[in-house]
């Protein structure tokens, strides 16, 4: 196990994870290594390793024990993105061609599977097998969430319950696994581990709600084009709230999906953007952040708790640059 300074700060830890990724994503076969190298060119936010670090530190855990778990969490995240790009037929990810775009879907599936296997290799040596179980459960939920989303694609009658189930499974489950694992590494009391898990769930829900909201607020300067979810038949919270008030709008959705009429597309976007659903969606995200913060109030009050609060508040600040 790699030994790192117990007093290392978050940036230092994230750098260690980045180096550990390079160390572990190795293959003796050039054709495989080229793909790993391509993936490593994408500089991710390391959001999940950051949560694991803070969750370990807030419960006074040994940060040496967190490095391999954090690296595994990032591998799982990268694997899920590779598979997502195949499902969504995406060609660009973080400014670079996707694996499926460069090497095809079959290789993309296999590389994603390889990353999952590499993650399990890092997790299996831990005596506390609940860490491995926590991540395998998260992966299972991520897969189920994607299936549910695909089954409800192009469905204007998609319910709130279905939407929240999808975002909890697809997005929040992995964040919650990272937070919970920090408590497990620390051998924290059950109530603290549960608090961290709930923090991750509500943080993940807020994170995805804001991401879905930004899809309707995006402009030409943003990487994700405005209305991408609508175009792909993914009914998210702003659309669900609008459809609750304007049920006839469902016919416009179907008309657009069937005919891909530009005027119909713009009409739907405008009706959603200038409805009460935007503020309603933002308020829902704010409530999720409050639930997340409430969950960790009973944990030790220290700079790591402050950092978790700051991370949750930062999610909401993403919408500040937009007028609505």
From TrEMBL:
Cofactors (names): Mg(2+)
GO biological process per UniProt:
isoprenoid biosynthetic process
Gene Ontology molecular-function annotations: metal ion binding; prenyltransferase activity
* Pfam families for this protein: polyprenyl_synt
Entries under InterPro entries matching the protein: Isoprenoid_synthase_dom_sf, Polyprenyl_synt, Polyprenyl_synt_CS
Kindly state which keywords UniProt assigns to this record, in alphabetical order: Magnesium, Metal-binding, Transferase
- Give the UniProt family note: Belongs to the FPP/GGPP synthase family.
- Could you tell me what this protein is called? Heptaprenyl diphosphate synthase
What is the originating organism of this protein?
Natranaerobius trueperi
């Amino acid at each position: 196990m790699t030994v790192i300074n117990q007093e290392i700060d978050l940036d230092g830890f994230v750098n260690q994870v980045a180096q550990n990724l390079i160390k572990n994503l190795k293959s003796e076969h050039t054709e495989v290594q080229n793909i790993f190298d391509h993936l490593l060119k994408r500089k991710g936010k390391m959001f999940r390793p950051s949560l694991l670090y803070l969750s370990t530190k807030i419960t006074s855990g040994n940060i040496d024990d967190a490095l391999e778990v954090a690296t595994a969490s990032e591998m799982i995240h990268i694997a899920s993105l590779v598979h997502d790009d195949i499902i969504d037929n995406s060609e660009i990810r973080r400014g670079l061609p996707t694996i499926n775009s460069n090497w095809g879907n079959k290789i993309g599936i296999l590389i994603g599977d390889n990353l999952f296997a590499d993650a399990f290799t890092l997790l299996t040596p831990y005596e506390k097998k609940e860490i491995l179980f926590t991540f395998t459960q998260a992966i299972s939920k991520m897969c189920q969430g994607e299936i549910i989303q695909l089954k409800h694609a192009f469905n204007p009658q998609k319910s709130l319950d279905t939407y929240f189930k999808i975002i909890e499974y697809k997005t929040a489950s992995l964040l919650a696994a990272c937070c919970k694992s920090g408590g497990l590494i620390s051998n924290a009391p059950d109530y603290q581990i549960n608090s961290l898990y709930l923090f991750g769930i509500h943080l993940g829900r807020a994170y995805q709600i804001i991401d879905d909201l930004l899809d309707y607020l995006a402009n030409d300067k943003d990487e994700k084009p405005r209305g991408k979810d609508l175009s792909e038949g993914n009914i998210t919270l702003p659309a669900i709230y609008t459809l609750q008030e304007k049920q006839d709008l469902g016919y416009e959705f179907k008309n657009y999906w069937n005919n891909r009429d530009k005027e119909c597309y713009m009409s739907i976007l405008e009706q959603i953007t200038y409805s009460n659903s935007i503020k309603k969606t933002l308020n829902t995200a704010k409530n999720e952040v409050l639930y997340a913060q409430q969950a960790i109030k009973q944990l030790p009050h220290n700079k790591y708790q402050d950092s978790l609060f700051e991370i949750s508040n930062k999610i909401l600040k993403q919408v500040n640059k937009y007028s609505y």
